[in-house]
Structures are given as structure tokens and as C-alpha cells.
Amino acid sequence: MKGYQAIPKVFLLVFTALLMVLTFNITNTKAITKTDVLAAEQVMRKYDGISSWRLIDNVATNQYGSIPIGGNVSLGYAFGAARDANGNVKAGDKTITLRSNYDFSTGIPHITNSKINIFLIDNGKYYGILHQGDKSYVGGNPENASISSIDFALLENSNTSSPFYDGMNLLTNASQIDSSYKTYKLFYTANDKNGRKVFKLVGYFSKKNVYFEIVLRPSPSGSPVVQRELYVYNAESTTAKFQTFYGEDTGLNPDNDDNSSVDNVPMFAIGGGLGLYIESGLTNSESKLFITNNIDGGFKDFMGRVLANPDNWSIKGKDNNKAEIASPKLPVVTDDNHSSSLDGDTNAKADQNLLIGKSNSGQEYKIIDGSGKQDTSYILRWPYTSLAPGGVAKYVSNIGATVKPYAIPTVKKTYKNLTSKDGTNNVGDKLHFTLSVRNDGYGSNWIISKIKDDLPKGLTIDPNSALINESGTGIDYNPNTGVTDGATATYEFDATINNKAPIYAPNGILTNTVQFTGYNKGFSDTRTYEDSVDIPIEIPNYSYDFTHQVRNITADPNSNFSDTVDATTGDTLEIKSVFTASVATDNRTRYVNNINTGYTSKDKLQLVPGSVTLNGAGQSDSIFNGIYPPVTPANQSNTFIFHVKVNSNIEETIENYAQLLDATNFLTGESLYIDPSNSIYINVHPPVPTTSFIEVPELIDFGSINSTGTEKMLTNKQTKGNLIVSHSAETPYQVLVSYDNNSDQALANGDDKLIQDDGLSLLLDNSSNEAVDDWEPLSTTGIPINNQEFVGSDEPLDLTKYVVLDKWKLRVPSTATSGQYSGQVTWTIADTPIE
């Protein structure tokens, strides 16, 4: 009886176990409506960052986009077919929203419709970099575009081949959205900040009950790189678990109906786990394709492999004995605690051939498929995902391609906090920035002509940086250096998070962008590429903005305020400080200017009395001791303005800043620590030394006499006009007067000269002692108007007293005839040696 009774129990246990297994694998498929997908798209667009998506409804027709590379070559991207029967680049594929079907009748997995298609455009012609199916052109069989690539798959396991292209493939398991138009995905278009097209397909993955969108986005940097992005949204109440894979069959060939010459090309690692690259192997049309993960959401692991036989995309291929290679491989792994042999080629060294294996004896061999060929493909893998209800996950890979000899510059900007070690960025922290540009081109040399990085107001660059611009607000550097294939040029600098950061950080984030401008060596194709980094800022319980600016109102009373200004000795400057706090401040707060400003002419900057105002109201001149604003509500500004005169008379830069001391929160009494304002810089350029006559006498009048036939010496009756000179350099000088009796300017009455001999003509009393005369005859070289030198100054010097009445004598010879005589003397200013 015991034995008899035990039999039903055994059967019951076995039956129950089988029932559990069968129940575990049952998938409940949810009925999806177009309204559901439209609502899910609104959620996912918050994560893809584009708010201006446009739905191309019903039977959507595809479009293509392009990114310039060099010459007449660009990188193209589309969903579906992008060429006509003659190889011209053309859109018009109406199959991209239809159902994607799987077929294995040829011995190679094929998936139709909606496939990602990346290609080169060479003078308007389609140059394939991915394998294209038979007649996969508009007007033919456009559904066959990229037919042998699997694109995205969300796997639970990889024990067999079918999950990659059938059981868990994203496209082949998309639910129908609209039966009227046989729609399985919705097609959207948009434009990025550079005006280039962005595309996406949105659908529902029935095997995991999650929504998805696949985005094709040109790199925001401007580089000829396309970002292939997948967003997965879990709208259910339970966690969705899966691992994301992406696979493509490559084929670099301008002859889109012949892939035989490119199916046996090597594949190489970039190094550092960054990805892989492939070269065409065509001597008449050399090209290169690369895949990288240096982007937010980038894949973690990758593997180069043969396309089929083995059909399991987690297996690399076969060895020279046509046995499947067990290591490395790229299967589903649920955590990081696994053997590196399960990470594919992620750890391969730079330029390592990924389709060369090594036997246990160390002998190298080609990795092949069952037919002995190296039909090149690759597979990417992201970390295992446990997607919580309401969550959205992101998966991205970069793809780029070029032809020889053009570069593909990829710009990257990163930072490291040198102050805080807890992962936060706080006011006062120093950040170390790294700017880099990598060239993934082919036979190229990209010349960097300029690096420009205008820091946001919340960052202050280290003034000792070799890359700093003239205004001290960022980077402006012209390296004029080349970056060859596979090389990276790197530049570094430090900056500090200043007190403006909390105010100028929208949603607590500062965004900083660097631009690299350059050209392909030997070509006139200058382009600019950029990258941005977001810096989250810890917002304190209070924030403030304290600006300090200046303008030269002597040079231009309507000029704009700035951090720097040029000035000349004697100019008047207007200085403005504005303080705004996020909390109310009380009347103990005082504004103080620093010690570079003073009251007297001995100071480099002299306060103009009566010029100080607070919010337009006059204040005392005590900016050194403090100006006290009244109780000020939160977010209301106080504006301090005053004038200074520039007394400095040397070439120098004067720094000036302001302080807000004893600042207190009006509501809580809390003391507020306020950093000094930014500095302003006054570039003083003393007046260029001037030496000139402002005025010279217009007439020296000797009166009139009766001719008696005797020689006479006449003293001048008047000197009409003044003698005023400018000699701004504070050095000794003399004023000389000369007369040439043999020139055209000699005293004469028409052609009749007054003095026709070699005797005296004009004399000047140049004695510095008014009690003693010192008559000196004028000569052609000139004599000083005073026997003691003068010293220059900023102000003009009036020397009229040295040439007035009774300071001149004129000899009238006995031979002079009657008439009106006139002539001219010459004035000269000459520096005298300093003893």
C-alpha cells in the first residue's frame, strides 16, 4: 500500500514542477492603442530632450539627413531605404512603420522594415557601410534595407540564436498600433540646434510590455557621427528585466549590389574599451567605419564576429577547425561578477585584429564562419537592466564613417572637482577641465586652428591658465597643431565655482561648451565642432549676485559698462556695483570700495566728490567706510554708482573691486558671507608725449621811421599774439627762434631786401633776468628765447612774456630805401640734454 500510495505523490510533484515552468514562460500580451503610444511618446521625449517632435502620421514616408565630412562627402542616416535604383541618395520609403518580419530561408537571419541605415554620400551617390538586401532601394524592395542586421534586442537569455532576431528582437515583436494603416511604429521628425534632421520610431515591445523609441540623432558636436539611441519606458506596475543588445552586418562598398569584396575585411579595437573600427579593404575606394561608446548611455561591451553560422550573436565565430569559439563570447550576464571572457572584445588592445584568434599553443588563426569566410559583423551589449515601474532607460552608440583622406574629429569636455570629495559641486570649489579632440579619420590630419570656451558666469577661470583669453573670462587659444588618425589632442585648465553660480545655474546646473575649429590638412574646409558638459551645483540656503563694472565717460559718456576699460590720465570713469540677494538684508549691511581709490591727486584713482549714489539717490563720499543701504527685500537689487578721476600717469593696469560687509538676513538675523565682487581692470595709457606750438605771435611790429641815410637800431613797438607751447613730457626743453636773411622769408619790400650785407639783422633779449639785457643776434640755426631751459608738464606753457614789447631789435642799414618791409621768423621746440 505504501508503494501504491507513493506513486500518485511522485506524479503530482513532477506534474506540479512542469506546470510552474510552463506558467513562468507565459507572456501576457497587452492590447495597445495608438492613444497609448502617443501618451508614452510624451513621456519619452522628456528623456530624449526634444520637445518639437512632429508626427508623420498614417502611412509615413521616410526622410534622410546628412552631416558634412569633407569635400563633397557627408555621412547620411535614415530609417529604411535611402537610394534609388541608380545609386542616387533618395528618400521615399513607405515601409518604415509597417510590421518587421523575420525570415531565415536563406540561412542568414533577415529582418525587414524600419531598419537603421547609416551610409556615406559621395557626390550625391549612396556609399553603403552596412550590408543592404536585394533591390533595397526606393522603387524596388525598400523593406530590405539593412536586412541582415538585427538592430536592438532585449534579451532574457542568449542560450540559443532565436532571441536575437526573432523571440526577443525589438522590431519583430512590436505590437500593431493602428490596423487601418497597418502601423506598428510611429515616425517622428525634428531638427536639432544645428538645423540638422533628427528621426525616431516609437512603438510597444510586446514581449516585455514596455514602450520604446529608437532615435537617429546627428552628434550635437557637429562631428560626422550619428547617435543611435534607444529609450525604453516601463508603464506597468511591475519591474521589467532584460539586457539590451545591438547588432549590425557591415559592408563598406560604393557598389551596393556587390558585397563580395568587403566580406573578408579585418575588424580592429579602438582600445580602452571605446569600441571598434573597420576598413573597407578596397584600394580604389578606401573607407572606414567606427563604433564608439564615449557618450551618455553608451554600451559597455562589444564584440567583432562573423555574421552567420554560428547564428547565435553571442558567439564570435569558428576556429580553423570550424569549431565554435567558446572564449571570448558576449552572452547575457545579469551582473558584473563574471569572467572577462564573457565580455567579448571589450578588453582588446588598440588596433588588435578582432577576427584573429589564438590557439592554446599560441598559433594565430582566422576566425571564420561555417563557409570559411569572415563576413564581418559586430554586437554591442549594455549592462543588465531592472527597469522600475514608471522608469525610462537609455541605450546609445555612436557610429561614424569616412573616406580617405578626411578626418572625423570628435570633441569631448570633462571635469573633475579638485575640492569636494563627496561628489557635490559647491561655491568655492575648484574644477579641473579637460578638453580633447580625437580624430577617427582615415589617412587624415586635422589641424586645430582655434579652441574657444566662454565660461558661464558661474565659473571663474584660473588667471594663470596658458589658454586664457584677453578678457579673462574663458579660453581663446590658437594651437595650430595637427591630430592624425587615432590620435587625441588634450588641453587642460582650472576654474572656480563663483558666487554667481547659484543664480546662473538653471535648475541647479551650469552648462559649459567648448568649440574646436580646424580643417583637413591640404583642404580649405574649416569647420567647428563642440561639446558641452553639465555641472550640477549645490544651491545654498541663500544666493546672491554681486557685479562690479566700469566705463569711461570721458571717452564716451554713452558707452556700455564692462569688466575692463581703457583710460588716459585725467579721464573720468563711472563705476557701478549691483548687489542682489535671494533673502532680505537689513540696514547693517554696508558697501565698501577697496583701497585703490582715494581722495587726493596722489592716489591712482581719485573719487570725484558728490558723485556717489545709491539707487539714484545721492550719498556721502564715504565709500571707504561704507554706504548703508536700507532694509532690502529678497531679490531686489541695490545699485551703487560713483565717479573717479584717473591720476596715474604711467602705463599700468589698476584692479578695483567692492565688498559687502556685515550682511545679515533681515528675517533670521543670520550673518551672510558675501565674497568680494568681481574685479574690474582699468588699463591706464598715459597721454602720448606731445610737443607742439599752440599759438605763436602773428606780428612783431617795429613801427615806421623816416629814412635819413644813417643806420639805426629799432626796438619793437608791439608783439601781436601769444607764444604758447605744449611739452607734456616732464623733461627740459628750449624754444628757439631763427631768421635767415638769405631766404625767401627775409625782410623785404617786394624784391628789395632790407639788409643786403652780412651784418646784424634781428636780435632778441633772452636774458632770464629782467634787470639785465642780453641781446643775441638771430641766426639760421636759432637762439633760445630764454637763456634758461623750460621743463615740460601736462599743462600748456605760456611763454609770451619772453617775446613781448621791447624784447626785439632790428638793424636798419643806411642804405635802406623807403617802403613797407615784411619777413618771417621760425619757431622751434628742442629737447635739451639732461645733465
Write the layout of secondary structure elements.
Blueprint lengths: L1 H23 L9 H15 L5 E3 L7 E7 L2 E7 L22 E2 L6 E2 L4 E7 L2 E6 L20 E5 L6 H6 L18 E6 L5 E9 L4 E9 L6 E9 L6 E14 L13 E3 L5 E5 L7 E6 L8 E6 L49 E3 L5 E3 L9 E6 L3 E3 L4 E12 L5 E9 L12 E10 L5 E10 L4 E3 L12 E4 L3 E4 L3 E10 L11 E12 L6 E10 L7 E9 L11 E4 L4 E10 L8 E4 L3 E2 L6 E3 L5 E2 L2 E2 L18 E10 L5 E5 L1 E4 L18 E5 L6 E5 L3 E3 L10 E4 L2 E3 L3 E4 L4 E7 L9 E2 L2 E2 L8 E4 L9 E3 L5 E2 L5 E2 L5 E2 L9 E5 L13 E6 L4
What features would you describe in this structure?
With 835 residues, the protein is mainly beta. The chain has three helices and 58 strands. The chain has a nine-stranded antiparallel sheet with strand order 1-9-10-11-12-22-16-15-14. Strands 2, 3, 6, 7, 8, 13, 17, 20 and 21 form a nine-stranded antiparallel sheet that branches. Strands 32, 34, 36, 37, 38, 39 and 40 form a seven-stranded mixed sheet that branches. It is elongated, with a radius of gyration of 43 Å. Mean pLDDT is 90; it is low at 1-27.
Count of the domains:
4
The count of DSSP E runs of length 2 or more, i.e. the number of strands, is: 58
* Count of helical regions: 3
Helix fraction, binned, reads under 10%
| Major sheet strand order | 1-9-10-11-12-22-16-15-14
- Average pLDDT confidence is 90
Low-confidence stretches: 1-27
| Radius of gyration, taken over Cα atoms and rounded to an integer in Å | 43 Å
Describe the largest sheet. Answer: 9 strands, antiparallel
**What's the multimeric state?**
single chain
Organism: Companilactobacillus farciminis
Protein name: DUF11 domain-containing protein
InterPro entries: OmcB-like_DUF11
